[in-house]
Specification:
Helix content is 39%, strand content 16%. By secondary structure, it is α/β, with parallel strands linked by helices. The longest helix is centred in the C-terminal third of the chain and has 22 residues. It is globular and about 55 Å long. The mean pLDDT is 95.
């Protein structure tokens, strides 16, 4: 049972925040001898040396002072080049703002957009922080569900459109998806953007897993369909693609006129991203293609190892993911994901994230992060088979 940390004189929106089920299961299993933790969204390979050296060299040069609130020009120009190479889109540097992580980018965006009781349509199942961010900003999350079908995960855009009300301020889409691995088709991106233009609604696209795709180099970006002045905010991060989860470095692509507002908000939040961290980002962008290729190959091997085993378990239902690094699967007869996650910790010594953490549509599912070594994944699957398989 989660401990009650509320104080009556804190803001209502903060006191009403609930501990996510991912954190609850992590606390439940933390510290157990030999436990295999596959509940969080990161691999087990440290940041490459050339990225770390770029940060160290920057600090040795004395680049430890305040900086441009929108990010140093060198990094924004490197991102201009990266968008051209990766997505074949032209993005001007004044459309890019550097943030202290992709999560901070989303927090800034949601905080800028929402007045109390404004609504955001969230396409899910999706990672839980977006729900918490909307709630702490006194907003309301409405839902459109990616559904598990015999042909994989599918989104009916009509469900998105039907969720809109007079209070709808934005639509949030995460593609490639955490936790499902679903990738939004380009034709659906174009159709969603056209609808949002007609309704004067912002579109927030979380594309942090853009390079972790199978069968293609990158996932389709909403930027390929957006004009510079469209109400489109694309959030991205260095965390996943370049093995930099602990660095807390991200960016937003936004309409150029929004740059001063973002700078103002960043000024009162963090006063900007440390220059040496931004230098590490430049090193990742300019010398990190091999890092991405190696991680993609590692994730593909992990995906196939895990999915090949899941296919043999009669009680399990899943779709082989198109991107990201998670297997999201249901188990016949399970209606309480958190309870099953705790059972797997107790009986298998393996930590998986409960699907209930990922909003409506996630209950009954489990999420397994397969960005790990084959040896660790094989041990985990052998252990899970004793409960979930036919062993």
């Amino acid at each position: 049972m989660a401990q009650d940390y509320t104080f009556p004189d804190l803001a209502r929106t903060v006191n009403e925040l609930e501990e996510t089920d991912i954190l609850e299961i992590a606390i439940y299993g933390w510290g157990r001898q030999g436990l295999i933790p596959l509940w969080f969204g990161e691999g087990d390979v440290p940041t490459p040396a050339h990225i770390c050296e770029a940060a160290a060299d920057s600090m040795r040069r004395g680049e430890t002072f305040y900086t441009d609130q929108n990010g140093i020009e060198d990094l924004r120009l490197a991102l201009v080049d990266y968008h051209r190479r990766a997505f074949e889109v032209a993005v001007a540097p004044e459309r890019i703002t550097i943030t202290n992580s992709g999560m901070m980018a989303l927090s800034l965006v949601i905080g800028m957009l929402l007045d109390p009781q404004d609504e955001v349509i969230v396409v899910g199942p999706v990672w839980p922080n977006i729900y918490s961010t909307i709630k702490v900003n006194d907003g309301v999350a409405r839902h459109a569900t990616i559904r598990h079908t015999p042909d994989g995960w599918q989104l009916d855009l009509e469900e998105v459109f039907a969720a809109a009300t007079d209070r709808t301020k934005a639509v949030f889409v995460n593609s490639p998806s955490n936790p499902t691995g679903w990738i939004m088709p380009e034709e659906d991106q174009a159709r969603l953007l056209e609808w949002a233009r007609e309704r004067d609604i912002w579109v927030i696209a979380d594309e942090v897993y853009h390079s972790l795709t199978f069968g293609r180099d990158v996932s389709p970006s909403l930027l390929r369909h957006a004009e510079p002045d469209d109400k489109v905010l694309v959030v991205n991060s260095f965390s996943k693609s370049w093995l930099m989860t602990g660095w807390r470095l991200g960016w937003i692509v936004h309409p150029p006129a929004l740059a001063p507002t973002l700078a103002k908000v960043i000024q009162i939040q963090t006063s900007g991203v440390p220059v040496f961290v931004q230098r590490a980002g430049i090193a990742a962008l300019t010398g990190g293609d091999e890092v991405i290729e190696d991680l993609r190959a590692r994730c593909l091997a992990g995906r196939d190892l895990v999915c090949d085993r899941l296919e043999k378990w009669p009680r399990v239902r899943f779709a082989r993911p198109q991107g990201a690094f998670y297997a999201f699967f249901s188990v016949d007869g399970v209606t309480d994901s958190l309870a099953l996650s705790k059972e797997l910790v107790d009986r298998c010594n393996v930590g998986l994230a409960p699907g209930s953490a990922f909003g409506p549509g996630g209950q009954g599912f489990l999420r397994l992060c397969y960005a790990s070594t084959p040896e660790k994944l094989d041990r985990a699957m052998n252990a899970l088979a004793t409960v979930l398989g036919d062993a």
